[in-house]
Amino acid sequence: MSHFIAEPKQGVPFVSVQAMAKLINTLGIENVLVSLTKTLKHDFARWHEFDKSPRYAAHSPDGVIELMPVSDGKMFSCKYVNGHPKNTFKELQTVAAFGILSDVDSGYPAMISEMCLLTALRTAATSALVATYLAPKNSTTLTLIGNGAQSEFQALAFKAVLGITHIRLYDIDEAASQKAFNNLNNKGLTVTICESVEEAIKGAHIITTCTADKTNATILTNDMIPQGVHINAIGGDCPGKTELDSALLERANVFVEYEPQTRVEGEIQQMSRCFAVTEFHKVINKQHLGRTSEKELTIFDGVGFASEDFSALVYIREQLIKSGEYEILDLITQQGDPRNLFSVLEIPHKDKENAA
After folding, report:
1. pLDDT, position 3
2. Weakly modelled stretches of the chain, pLDDT under 70
3. pTM exceeds 0.90, yes or no
């Protein structure tokens, strides 16, 4: 059975930034986030079907470049992504990403896509999915600490999936908070810019931390956080980068995506190897209860895992099939005799002779 959108010899379907933006706007971003949450839940429920490994990471003083592969035996996906916080000073994106989805039977690419927008969408959808199991019931208020590129996606995912109505913003850069305020103010949310972390977390049911600096920072200290809150910690995503006080982790029920990766990159890199965590798929599959009481403190130590990119790419592919609109890349040679690769080099020469 073919897994291709089109026949392999027609080329490789490609989703550009413009095409992704058009598709999201056509479907509606909140609809996309809800649908992505359902796709992610389906794939977390079949966790055992995926061939998993921690991502490959090449670290430098100013950032990291990562490759994130995964396969379910039918399709294979891999994302190229970087994280360079100082890029903003060069008027460059902190994150640049693209992904590939391939057919396992043939090894041919089935789709290539931008993944700056798509990563923001899948990260927000993952956060919202986890919160449906771990956040206090009837949560209405979300605090966003770190108001960069991810913040609006997080806010809209929590609104669409959990019914959040109030957003409290804080960033050390006031311009970032004002940017997020302007983008969210007409989205059916009550949005407030706060002057400190302490002010921002007051009355919050869910707290998302998503700062960019590649440092072992302490954004939330143990004494700040009462019981009963859910913390969505998604900023710590590489060695040497954390946001939470270790004492906060000690008193919480901590959930992760793929433990071998999170031990190296997440908040729990601060903790000993015997520090207990729960992989989130166990909650989906009812092997773990998740939140057990309204007074419990829960933390999602989310670093982003390749299966989430797989889910997002498969979802976008399905939307492309429905729309029938996509670009084609001339990426794979299409010579008549598959064994005669050299003939591809001869074609321009012959065309030139015919033209003469």
Report:
1. 55
2. 1-9, 212-216, 236-237, 347-356
3. yes
> Helix 29-45 crosses helix 17-27 at what angle (to 10 degrees)?
100
Residue 66 lies in a domain: yes
- CATH code of 242's domain: 3.40.50.720
Say whether both 47 and 150 belong to one domain: no
Pairwise CA distance, residues 207 & 285, whole Å: 25
Cα separation, 297 vs 252, in Å, equals 5
Domain count for the chain, please give it: 2
Active-site annotation, residues: 237
d(CA 117, CA 106): 28
Phi, psi for residue 279 in degrees, rounded to 5: -70, 135
DSSP assignment string, 180-222: HHHHHTTTT-EEEE-SSHHHHHTT-SEEEE-----SEEEEE-G
CA 351 from chain centre, in angstroms, equals 46
CA angle 324, 330, 336 (to 5 degrees): 110
Sheet with 56-60, strands from edge to edge, namely 56-60, 63-71, 75-83, 97-103, 109-114, 12-15, 327-329
Task: Tell me the residue length of the chain.
Answer: 356
Cα(17)–Cα(88) distance, rounded to whole angstroms? 19
